[in-house]
Amino acid sequence: MSTQPNTSRRNFLKQSLLAGGGLLIGFKLYGAGIAATGEIENAALAAASVDFNSYLSIAPDGVVTIFSPNPEIGQNIKTSFPMIVAEELDVDWNRVKVVQAALDSSKYERQVTGGSGAIPHSWKRLREAGATARQMLMEAAAKRLKVPVSELSTQNSLVLHKASGRQLGYGELAADAAKLPVPASVKLKDPRDFKLIGKAINNVDNGDIITGKPLFGMDFYREGMLTAMVQRLPAFGMKLKSVDASAAKAMPGIVDVVRFDNKVAVVGKSTWQVMKARKALQVEYEQESALESSADHDRLFKELLDSKEATVRRQDGDVEAAFKRAAKVVRSEYQCPFLPHSPLEPMNFFAHVRADGVELIGPTQTPDRARGVAAQITGIAPEKITVEMTRMGGAFGRRLMADYVEEAVHVSKLAKAPVKVIWTREDDMAGGNYRPAVRYRFEAALDAAGNMIGYKLRGVGINAGNPTRENNFPSGSVEHLLIDSVEHKSPITTAPWRAPITNFLAFAEQSFIDEVALAAGKDPVQFRLALMDKAKQSPVGEIGYDIDRMKTVTQMAAEKADWGKKKSVHQGFSVYFSHRSYVAQVGEVVMEGGKPVLKKIYAVSDCGQVVNLSGARQQVMGGIVDGLGHAMYGNMTFKEGVPEQQNFNNYRLIRLKEVPDIELHFVDNGIDPTGLGEPALPPTGAAVANAIFKATQKRIYHQPFIEQDAMKGVS
């Protein structure tokens, strides 16, 4: 990548400290020599190395370069992908160089980071890439040593012939091996022989992050590029009427002002100049559709829940008859608000539209989508569009969208210049894409023995599509079941938000199951296990989850937390299946000064084979902290189409001191990896809310928790 920094964060930090902190007074620009050094190293490496396949090359000095094709969002994939290749290659990890590959879907197929699907999708092909290179190296060694391949083995970048004690390094075999035909099939390692996979390996970017090296989209700079900021609509439901840009154009450093769709972009030589000029724009807007408010949404949800027009997602047995003969019926409603994604690195992207192609560089979860929108806007063939991926400073689904890429392409095309579009945090929180707001109505019918004989769920949402997961638990364990949904279309833009739909559905469902268990006079964990046993022994209809895996994490979490055995500690349980993996959690709350205080969360995850234990732990902990923080404090409200929270001064995030002790466990079952970036988040809210109910006898039905009765007085 030809990325060049425009400043050293380390020098910036030094100068900020010297200035007394908080005052940005100047940077030390990198000299051209530093960038040139990197280019020479890359060129020399490229010239000397031998490519074995799309994923790896080996240099004569034995250094192995492994290309990580998927975007790095902070989920450790840039380390985990190369680990899988290196494991099968049997290479010395200390001699591995990891490089972020550019978009090339003909080589790598799926270059997407989202849905916790990257490793499950690529697990086998990554292993085969490493094993193929290893096999070719062994065949080259066999010819050099004049021995059968069967007498050779590998270890730490060496091919060994134990009978004679001779050994050859991968570097000295690389050129010969690359000339050999690629084997049609290779034998993969027995997982019992894994040396890297399952171990805790440091993220390959740690050193660069700590020392402030340029890795992120915001760091990208190229001599001659311009900066742009876009003036967006002030409210959802408005459209652009007119713009007078004369004052902005006359300001120092401003090169152009361009208009596209309902947006106006100011283009200039520096961010500061562009930011000031954007405020000088004279823009008029007019209303195009309804300007919705959160108060309207509350009324709307009630109407949708009572609507006779619903899409049936699943129906088993005779639900109405089951409810008529029930000894007891439990009904509850749960509601969640819109939420922004809030990545710490605001949106940004670089585009250079030329007559013969387009160059795109920046943070994206979906580089192929970025290329697609650029092709659509410019009419240039996709094969003439390149996409280089920078590391992302958070995304949580926000960068699955390509709206900010579209802006960069539009502006570069209209300004006829290489342009980097930069958003402020207010731009993203006020004009971005949000988690849909949804409301659920649950109903359960119990017989005289406390068995759940009927179950109903209606999910309603704003731009939420289907807000249910109809084949998920407890479906399959209830003879009479009805799940349906109703959607409201709104001009408020929504998008996938970490663990889409399940991020709140899990809280609602697992809180309701807790209510039903208590209404039945049964222990919540045993109540769930009984439902799983029933689904196993006499399943009703389709089941979208693995009962045995769900049961295992449930039992393990209860065992690790000493469920029900602790005095003065109030425990809440939750278990959920999402994104192919299973996570059970126990939250523990104690009463201090008459207030509930969360002390600890136990989490047991079944994500199949753990690739990097360090990354796995970070993802589970991160998911729990993210889930806890947004459940406790996350709230975005609208008034006349305008988001009322537009920065962190009034959008509350969890603070370090509010994170409880977290104890993690992983199930070792030998199953191929099944995804881990999202599954730990969904169960957290319910584990905590159920524990708070135990402590206070007050049930939490809405997010954010901090505003609910059970939490009154908690600071």
Q: Can you walk me through this structure?
A:
A seven-stranded mixed beta sheet has the order 12-13-10-20-17-18-19. The chain has a five-stranded mixed beta sheet with strand order 15-23-22-21-16, with helices on both faces. Helix 5 crosses helix 6 and helix 12 (about 365-380) runs parallel beside helix 13. By secondary structure, the protein is an alpha+beta fold. The model is unreliable at about 1-45 (pLDDT under 50). Strand 25 (about 580-590) and strand 26 (about 595-605) form a beta hairpin. It contains 19 helices and 29 strands. The protein is globular, with a radius of gyration of 28 Å.
Strand order of the largest sheet: 12-13-10-20-17-18-19
Mean pLDDT: 91
- Strand fraction: 15-25%
Distance between the termini: 47 Å
Supply Rg: 28 Å
- Counted by DSSP, the helix tally is 19
Overall structural class, as computed from helix and strand content, comes to alpha+beta
**How many β-strand runs?**
29
Low-pLDDT ranges = 1-43
Main sheet: strands, sense, barrel: 7 strands, mixed
Coarse shape: globular
Write the layout of secondary structure elements.
Layout: E1 4-5, H1 9-18, H2 32-48, E2 50-53, E3 56-58, E4 64-68, H3 77-89, E5 96-100, H4 105-108, H5 118-145, E6 152-155, E7 158-161, E8 166-169, H6 170-178, H7 206-210, E9 220-221, E10 226-231, E11 238-244, H8 246-249, E12 254-260, E13 263-268, H9 271-279, E14 282-287, H10 294-305, E15 311-316, H11 319-324, E16 328-336, E17 348-354, E18 357-362, H12 367-378, E19 385-389, H13 403-415, E20 419-422, H14 425-431, E21 438-446, E22 452-462, E23 480-488, H15 502-519, H16 524-537, H17 547-560, E24 570-578, E25 581-592, E26 595-606, H18 613-633, E27 638-639, E28 642-643, E29 661-666, H19 684-696
Parallel strand pairs: 4-5, 10-20, 18-19, 22-23, 26-29
Antiparallel strand pairs: 1-9, 2-3, 3-4, 6-7, 7-8, 10-13, 11-14, 12-13, 15-23, 16-21, 17-18, 17-20, 21-22, 24-25, 25-26, 27-28
Helix pairs in contact: 3-5, 5-6, 12-13, 15-19, 16-17
